[in-house]
Amino acid sequence: MAQSSNSMQVYGYDLLLGLIAAFYVFMAPYTKVEESFNVQAMHDILYHQHHIEKYDHLEFPGVVPRTFIGSILVSTLASPFVLAASLLQFPKLYSLYAVRLVLGFIILSSLRFFRIQIRKNFGSQVEAFFVILTAIQFHMLFYCSRPLPNILAFGLVNLAYGYWFQKRFYAALNSLVFATIVFRCDILLLVSPLGLELLLSRSISLRKAVISCLIAACSFIGLTVMVDSVMWRRILWPELEVFWFNSVLNRSSEWGTHAFHWYFTSALPRSLLVAYPLSVLGLFLDRRIRMYVIPVLSFVTLYSKLPHKELRFIISSLPIFNLSAAIAASRIYNNRKKSLWKYLNIAMLGLFLISLGCTTLMFMASYENYPSGHALKVLHKMGHLEHNSNELWVHIDTFSAMNGISRFCENHAPWRYSKEEGIPLQEFQRRNFTYLLSEHAQRNGYKCLLSTTGFSGTRLHAGFPPILLVKKPKVFVHGNTNNNEIIHRSWPGC
Q1: 235-256, pLDDT tens digit by residue?
Q2: β-pairing, 446-460 with 467-480?
């Protein structure tokens, strides 16, 4: 009994965070366009292995190349589960669960390493509040299993934070160099202020830091060039091309821009919730945290200069802000019996509940954010034809491919899939597709069989809950009118 209690004390926080992350995986397994490269790469590594000519990236290379290193690591660790699922003849969607759970395990393991250093440096109560704040936030645990370059880099950043707290400064810098060279070149915006602070505080020597980082950089460049040149069939360093595209050419702004203050007035408040005001308070309550917050705050500020902004770009900053918030929450809790602090404690508990409500709302919106994945699942369930002698040929338009469908969502024969782009409208009839997944409600020569809704916004409501989700039809499944079995079958309709 004592051993069981000790295990819960050691692994209880991991179990809590892991269960929440796994819940998000099973409830929202599908992926969007931002994740498409890595998720397709993981599929191809698992199912096509050394047959690189069959890989998706050769047909749909994307705007800039990305590294295969993260996909190879995750796929290798997930391969025993994928093999078991294949032997049991489970749909490929189970393999998507496997790779996402493995990635989530990697990221949460790196967060655990950092959390242990929090306990050693600030105490178990601050660690407890750090876990609570992380659990009631949405984005970190929802994204930790999503195969984004930002998330692969996030794992290395967590390791760097842990090394930083252990005073293993060169290891921290090398972890960030790894993340910068291989996964996200923008982590350079975190390496720079952190390295400068360590130099100014005389925690490292300039000569030794330059030598250490140069050796690490050359090693990691060699690794990514060696692996990715084979996979892309040309000599390249993927993150160098990403850096050139985003920073030198400033082409990323073609995907939308935000004001300089957007990270501070929108992204951080949404992702941190109650931890946002608490993180500011923590800076005043414990001066030790300032040396950790300043480089991370500089990272977000420097990133704000780039016009194209997304929350996932700064997700690596969240653990440090959560730590500052946990310090404030612990101080408020410890002083809760004092007059002024008592009211702060009541306000804090109220904000915890509001944060939990906001997280629930954001999860519900995200669940509805993959309409084409849900549409294809329904089609697989209802679309088998008794008199089909050849194949069921499904065309997936660009919108559907970007909003929930990957190769993990495809079924085996007789199903066949096309993602061909730029087909003229009149050409669909001549192609003789069995089904179409389209963002358009009407297609000549096809009958709309069903539609799936997607998240469209929120609106205030006079009753409970006070905020409701607005959903609209997003993806339409059409059937070929030349197929009598499709036409005469009962469908949900549009």
Answers
A1: 999 999 999 888 777 777 777 7
A2: antiparallel
- pLDDT beyond 50 at 5: no
**Is pLDDT at 257 greater than 50 in this prediction?**
yes
Give the CA diameter of the chain. Answer: 79
Nearest to residue 102, comparing CAs of 144, 159, 148, 68?
A: 144
Comparing CA positions, the residue from 397, 408, 487, 414 lying closest to residue 449 is 487
pLDDT reported for residue 133: 97
Residues counted in the chain: 494
| Torsion sign across C-alpha atoms 447, 450, 455, 458 | positive
Helix ranges, 166-274 (H): 169-178, 188-200, 206-232, 238-243, 262, 268-272
Eight-class DSSP state of 447: E
Q: What is the mean pLDDT of the chain?
A: 92
Structure token pair of residue 200:
């100014």
What confidence category does residue 389 fall into, taking pLDDT thresholds of 50, 70 and 90?
low
Closest CA to 396 of 414, 382, 417, 381: 417
| Nearest in space to 165 (alpha carbons), one of 200, 118, 198 | 118
CA distances from 421 to 62, 153, 424, 428, 438 (A): 13, 32, 9, 12, 12
> Global pTM?
0.93
Taking phi over 0 as left and psi of -120 to 50 as alpha, with beta for the rest, 114 belongs to: alpha
First to last CA, the chain: 57
CA 146 – CA 101 distance, rounded (Å) = 9
Half-sphere exposure of 215 (CA within 13 A, CB side): 7
What is the pLDDT at residue 80?
96
**Tokens 């069959």 identify what position?**
54
Q: What is the pLDDT of residues 433-469, one digit of tens each?
A: 999 999 998 888 899 999 999 998 888 877 777 888 8
